[in-house]
Amino acid sequence: MSASRSVAIVIDGRAVTATEGVTVASALLDAGVTAFRSSTSGSVRGPVCGMGICYECRVTIDDVPHRRACLVVVASGMRVDTASGNA
Amino acid sequence: MTAQRRECDVVVIGAGPAGIAAAARAAELGARIMVIDEGIGPGGQIWRPSSRVLSSGRAAQWRSRLSQSGATVLSSTSAVDARSDEGRGWIVAAESLSGALEIVAGKLILATGARERFLPFPGWTLPNVVGIGGAQALLKSGTSFRGRRVVIAGSGPLLLPVAASMSKVGAKVVLVAEQAPFESVSRYTLGLWRRPSTLAQAALLRASFMKTRYATGTWVVAADGEDHVRNVTVTDGVKSRDMDCDVLCAAFGLIPNTELARLLGCRVERGSVIVTETQETTIAGVFCAGEPTGIGGVDLSLVEGEIAGAAAAGRAVDDGLVARRARLQSDAAALDRAFALRSEVSRLATDDTIVCRCEDVRLRDLDPSWSIRQGKLYTRAGMGPCQGRICGAALECLRGWPPDSVRPPIQPARLATFLVGAKAETTDEQGVH
Hints:
The structure holds 2 protein chains of 2 kinds.
Chain A: E1 6-11, E2 14-19, H1 24-30, E3 37-38, E4 44-45, E5 58-61, E6 64-68, E7 79-81
Parallel strand pairs in A: 1-7
Antiparallel strand pairs in A: 1-2, 3-4, 5-6, 5-7
Chain B: E1 2-13, H1 17-28, E2 33-36, H2 57-69, E3 72-74, E4 78-84, E5 90-96, E6 99-110, E7 114-116, E8 129-130, H3 132-140, E9 149-155, H4 159-168, E10 172-178, H5 182-191, H6 196-208, E11 213-216, E12 219-225, E13 229-235, E14 240-244, E15 247-252, E16 254-256, H7 259-264, E17 268-269, E18 272-273, E19 286-288, H8 297-312, H9 319-338, E20 354-356, E21 361-362, H10 372-379, H11 391-399, H12 415-419
Parallel strand pairs in B: 1-2, 1-6, 2-3, 6-19, 8-15, 9-10, 9-15, 10-11
Antiparallel strand pairs in B: 4-5, 5-6, 7-16, 12-13, 13-14, 17-18, 20-21
């Protein structure tokens, strides 16, 4: 395995360094974010299935809402907005 | 957004082991193949491509065989609809972030894999309550679980490798709880003497987290916490105990992904797609391979994929593969019996437990006298983005409701995706999220 490089992303307005190649879901969890989205009745939710089935990890990525964080790989300069940012 | 229309001989949906084997085999036989897959690269869940973990020898071999076969692989692309091209073949509507795509093909191979069975219990919607395969997927995709206290509670052979991976990355695995009774698990394990490599693998995995208790006949009853899970309660049916944890992995085996097959009208019985000797479904020209035909694991998926690929390319079925398929299917049946679900785990939800996570519908809102269709109409259960993929299996257990029919799109799609090909009847907005 080659030495992992890092990419700079922005989570809820906060600059964060993530390892290149990881998914947005992993970057968020490692940054301490557990509330990815807010449910219809207002409870917080995070990833469950990890494979694009459950849609619980939906976040806004570069202004595109409802993206599944578990299916998207981090990219330099990416902006991710979660339910934690609305708190 | 750009819309494209492309043609090929065979389109394969899914690039896990079954889809890879099917596509590679068919392409090697000269067919023009396109593969659509939601992942970031071929591999599916078991061979999830990752920049962090080196792929196993076999995964690397199959990936390279696929790339040399001449098949075109479209990753990060979701199939949202499939229909007959007026008897001439099949049209698959797909989309990726870069646009919509319509593929016209003579034959279709469904290799859509499986998902975990989630059964609701109080607290299951808390953040950091994840699936067991879900935890493995998050781990492989880069999540660091170092130092986290992890409880794994569910059923099936997946518990052991996930516990082993978690220990390896520095998580503290507090408990592995298997709902199946000790007698079933040990009878199954003893039966493995016929499969020395499997037994060695199981022993190795067990040894790698020796400090952890593996409790059979034990299942989760509730999770607790505020911003995320902090505590979990398990029981053996007599005594309950609770323990602190940071992550709870809870799921009850795997279930086939049959949405696309059902949409096309293929016969599905007891959750699995019915296929012939050549992996053809009850709809001529539509083949199915791997987990959708019944949970059987990677070896069976590869064999079924090869058979489907050859058959879709018009070749005779190899007797050796057929014999191997029969052996692997009997192994799968033994596994299924050993880890049969006890009735208690189907009834963990209380009246107040959310069953449909997308629409926040609680068990008490779902009248037992209804059908799943009535449940949808009256409460929106199963109408959210996951389209009942999570609550459907739960409601089958909790209410005995068989799954509802499938309508396009099979997952949330952009309206633009349906405007490709611009036929009036395909622009119906109904059901588009």
